[in-house]
Design goal:
By secondary structure, this protein is α+β, with helices and mostly antiparallel strands. Helices cover 35% and strands 23% of the residues. It has a three-stranded antiparallel β-sheet with strand order 1-2-3, with no helix packed on it. The radius of gyration is 19 Å and the shape is elongated.
Length: 77
């Protein structure tokens, strides 16, 4: 979906550029989307994830929407 959105934004920016007579840039390109996707990581429910020293997050099944999750944050203070 991210790459599709980038493709649509690029097309829209090209169309609007012609309409207004100046170059408009999309928010992000398909290459930006591919680079972002390389940073993604799948995480299962109920798995405590260390984000930075003293900060952890756990996803829990929200149940009402397929794939949805509740976030539980643990921050050492």
């Amino acid at each position: 979906m991210l790459q599709d959105s980038a493709r649509i934004q690029t097309h829209d920016a090209e169309h609007l550029s012609k309409k207004v007579g100046k170059a408009l840039e999309p928010l992000y390109t398909e290459e930006d989307a591919r680079n972002a996707i390389m940073q993604f990581r799948s995480v299962g429910y109920d798995q405590k994830i260390p984000l930075t020293p003293g900060v952890f997050m756990t996803f829990h099944d929200a149940g009402h929407i397929l794939g949805s999750a509740l976030e539980e944050w643990e921050i050492d203070d």
